[in-house]
Amino acid sequence: DDGYKAASIGQERALIRVLFNYARNTWYWGDPLVNPASGRKLPKLNNKRERVISNAEWDRIIAALRRGRNPYVMPALGLLLATAMRVGEALFTARWQDVDLGRCILRLRRAKAGAREVPLSPEAVEILRQLWARAGDPEPTARILPMTYEAVKAAWNRACTSAGVEDAHIHDLRHTSATRYAIEYHGNMPVLKRITGHLTDSMVNRYVHVSADDVVRMMHGRPGTEADAPAGLSAEKLD
Description:
By secondary structure, the chain is mainly alpha-helical.
């Protein structure tokens, strides 16, 4: 009735449900016998997105970002695209002490599904090398990207508007990266789960988006164009 979206209502319901479960299990409350936040009829949540940024769009976004002043915005977005990390993982969790360029691994001590190791592609390694040089031998506990989410989001929105790229969210870079690696590694699910940090095949599938046009191209043996491919996927790897 207050006009909140389904996601906000679901989050509040979840918080109340946790509260009553805690009260029953930890404080031994006997009343109410049934959790009042369970079994409610709620608005249907439809937050599924299938937006994939193409190489052509990414090139325009990068061109727009070059006109910005914050030197960390482009490396931050490039790292998100190269690793499929969540924005919070790259901005707030990733520390220099957790970077192992010898193994090409970034250790995340805290992630949504628990601690994990992020494989670093050649692009990601180069971005981290440049950031290290810019930071000038930073403290081990320092954040790799010393900036706020609001700064990244504002720069992204400005760049997309300037580049004429519509309906593009920062989180779409994670979808784009997952789709790129799914094509590049031929749908190898164990590899994809290691890259994205998902624990189940079903969660990975929510981030991999193969279009009908992609399938038709495969069926008829038609070459793909690099401009239309997911950002980061070269024509050589697409073929």
